[in-house]
Design a protein that fits this description.
By secondary structure, the chain is an alpha+beta fold. It has helices spanning 2-8, 34-51, 91-101, 168-174, 176-188; strands at residues 60-70, 111-122, 127-138, 154-156, 161-162. A 5-stranded antiparallel sheet has the order 1-2-3-4-5. A hairpin with a 4-residue loop joins strand 4 (154-156) and strand 5. Helix 1 (2-8) packs parallel to helix 5 (176-188) and helix 4 packs across helix 5 (176-188). The longest helix is centred in the N-terminal third of the chain and has 18 residues, at 34-51. The radius of gyration is 18 Å and the shape is elongated. It starts with a helix and ends in a 31-residue tail after the last helix. Residues 206-210 and 213-219 have low confidence and may be disordered.
C-alpha cells in the first residue's frame, strides 16, 4: 500500500485497502492468465461494493495478480505461485523445490521473471490493465532477507544480488509491480480531473498509448 500510495497519490484523493473499508470478501481466482485473475478480483470487489451501496461514481477499484514464471518449468508456477505445492506451504519449501527442479539447468536455462498485472475497474464499467515484468535467473541457493515469497531465489545479474538482497527503496523502483503501477499512473492521469473526479467516458482524453490488451501481454 505504501508503494501504491507513493506512485498514484496524484491521481486519487484517497487510496484505501479493502480491509480498511471493512470488506472481507475474496473474489474467486479462476482465470488462466494474470490479467484474468486481476480482473476477476477488481470486478468482484466492484460488484460487492455496488450490492452493498458502497460504490461512488468516482471510485476506481484496483487489484493485481502477480507470480513467478520459470522458463525451465514451462512458465510454472505462474498464476499458481501462491498455491504452488499448496497454499499453506511455506515459501522456504516452495523455493527449495524450484531450485531442485533446476538442479541440472545452467546459464540462460535458469531464466525467470516476475509478472504483475494490475486491473483498474471504474464505477461506470470501464476496465483497464497494465503489466510489468522483472527478469532474472533462478539462484542456486536462496539469499536475502528483504522482500517476501520468491524474492530470495530471483537472481539479478546486473546487480549481482537476488531480489531479496536489494534495499526495498531500490527494488520498488524496478520491480514488476512498480513498473505496472507507473504505467497505471500514466494511464489514469488523463482520466482524472484536477479536483479528483473521474472524467466521464465520453469526454475521456485520448491516450498516447493504447491500454493493455491480453494479446499484448509480455511472454
Amino acid at each position: 500500500m505504501k508503494e501504491v500510495r507513493a506512485i498514484l497519490s496524484d491521481v486519487a484523493d484517497s487510496i484505501v485497502a479493502k480491509s480498511e473499508l471493512g470488506i472481507d470478501f475474496e473474489p474467486a481466482e479462476t482465470g488462466k492468465t494474470f490479467a484474468e485473475n486481476a480482473e476477476q478480483k477488481a470486478v468482484g470487489i466492484r460488484e460487492y461494493m455496488l450490492k452493498h451501496d458502497m460504490l461512488e461514481d468516482d471510485d476506481i477499484i484496483m487489484s493485481d495478480d502477480s507470480g513467478l514464471c520459470v522458463n525451465y518449468m514451462l512458465g510454472m508456477p505462474g498464476i499458481y505461485s501462491s498455491r504452488y505445492l499448496g497454499e499453506d506451504t511455506s515459501y522456504d519449501i516452495k523455493n527449495a523445490r524450484i531450485i531442485k527442479e533446476l538442479q541440472y539447468a545452467e546459464g540462460d536455462e535458469r531464466a525467470a521473471h516476475f509478472t504483475c498485472n494490475i486491473c483498474a475497474a471504474f464505477a461506470d464499467g470501464r476496465i483497464y490493465h497494465t503489466e510489468g515484468i522483472f527478469e532474472g535467473l533462478i539462484a542456486k541457493e536462496p539469499k536475502g532477507e528483504n522482500g517476501f515469497g520468491y524474492d530470495p531465489i530471483l537472481y539479478l545479474p546486473e546487480y549481482g544480488k537476488t531480489s531479496a538482497e536489494l534495499p526495498p527503496e531500490e527494488k520498488n523502483k524496478i520491480s514488476h509491480r512498480a513498473k505496472a503501477l507507473h504505467q497505471m499512473h500514466d494511464l489514469l492521469l488523463p482520466m482524472v480531473s484536477a479536483d479528483g473526479h473521474v472524467v466521464p467516458q465520453d469526454k475521456e482524453v485520448a491516450l498516447s498509448e493504447p491500454p493493455f490488451r491480453e494479446d499484448r501481454r509480455p511472454q
